[in-house]
Amino acid sequence: MKKSLFIGLTACLLSAMALAEYADYIYVPPPKSAVSKAALFPIPEADIARYLEQDLPERVLTSFMGRNEELQAETESPGLQVACGTAIGAEAGEVFGQGFYDRGYWNFLASVTSVDAYAVRLQVDVSRLQVGQQLYVIDPVSHRAFGPYPRTDGSNAIHWLPTIPGDTAVMLACSPQNLLPEIQLVAVSHFFVPLETPETKATVCPERIACETDVTPAEVSAGVAMLIIAEGFSQIQCTGALLNNPVTETLEPLMITANHCVEEDTAAEDIDVIWDYRTAACDDGTVPDLDELLHSTGAAVLVKDPVLDGAFLQLDSAPVGPYGRAWLGWDTSDVALNVPVHVMHHPRGKDMRISKAHVTDIDVTACLDFTCCPKVQQQIEVHYDEGITQGGSSGSPLLMTGNNYRVCGMLSNGNVHSCDTPASNMDNYASFKHFFPKIACHLTEDGSCEAPFTAPACCPCPAKLIYGAFSSTTDHLRTFRDRALMTNTPGRLLTKGYYAAAPALSSWVKKSTAARTLFRAAAAPAAAIGASLE
Length: 534
What we know:
alpha+beta, Jelly Rolls, Thrombin, subunit H, six-stranded antiparallel beta barrel, 11 helices, globular, disordered N terminus
């Protein structure tokens, strides 16, 4: 009897082990020489400098002038909104100047400025370019050009160009004939969050990735990138990581991030992937200029799952930079409680950081924002021991420290964090184990991909109905939830009960003035406490 029981248990264990899929990371060291000038300057710097000496026609936008701090305070989204934009709809003749002949092309220039912007992105329509015609976008300070962009049709015809630091971007349209290419400037995005802010303190929270001295995490970090993703005319910032496909010898540019970073109408080509944004030394807060960094572009959004909050992308490339490049390992095994985990991320548009935590739950239903609409499921909860995450960290990989830093999750949501109270800082991560069946056909030889879950329709939160999603009162209530209620068991139970009752409460406050008055009276003390905690 004992022998048969032992055999049965052993068979079950071996069966479970056989079902677990995994891969370890692959690291490609940096090139022996510096990144080639051709990779950063498809048109020589000297030529760009000559072109920019000419009088350029300027289109100057003042819609967001002097409003950066106001815009930072007003925005709230699961991903970090870093820019807002406006439609332009200007045809080529309204934007570009007279042509001049150089390098075998007729060249036409246009300067676009959004006053006070920390960076800009231009949206263009290139569907009417003719054979041989090309478009570049130029940083007028560094003289770096991105491109060329030839004609594309269909859904890819209107797309966002790479992020240009500063308030001005220059377009260069090239044609074999003295004929202005028909390019439409569709929209302009104004960045109100700085992406190049140095921190002079020797010690920062969360810690710079350059402070990590162990070889494995240092190598793995080379597979993590900052994402700038168009959302309408706005831009959000998230984090993503390359994944190793172990069944091919080719290092495919496959990236994992959070579903909420990639909205339903986001085209893959509208994702600007920025590599190696990090300090060179632990005690040096100097960050590289964005125009010195390698970029990739999204090529396809392969899988999106709103219920698990996972997204899987294909990029056009994954260039190897000065820190090498890594394709991260991953694991579909169960994640044990209390195991140590690390997360590498770009919080609030900053250079890459690393935070350290331990797992506290493995099957969590959570909310992406204060309104809890929609809910996400089967998530991994962690509490931080060192460091925090912030807006912009969304999508970053959760790494199993004791298992060769394999990916086990992607950052989805959490409470408001403070470096002064690490025990109170928690986050929920999309479970890689549960997301894997949706992407298995891309990472295994014979695997098939299950269909992603469809998010159920959700009802509005009563606080959103009364105060609005982005009001200061809603912000204060969110802070009260995260810093007062979610730090203790009774508070967490109360929060859970509130969201369970939200459908009925929402219906009530819609229909009754008395209900709205009662809700405001009940919420006022909580909002006041939340304001005092900010």
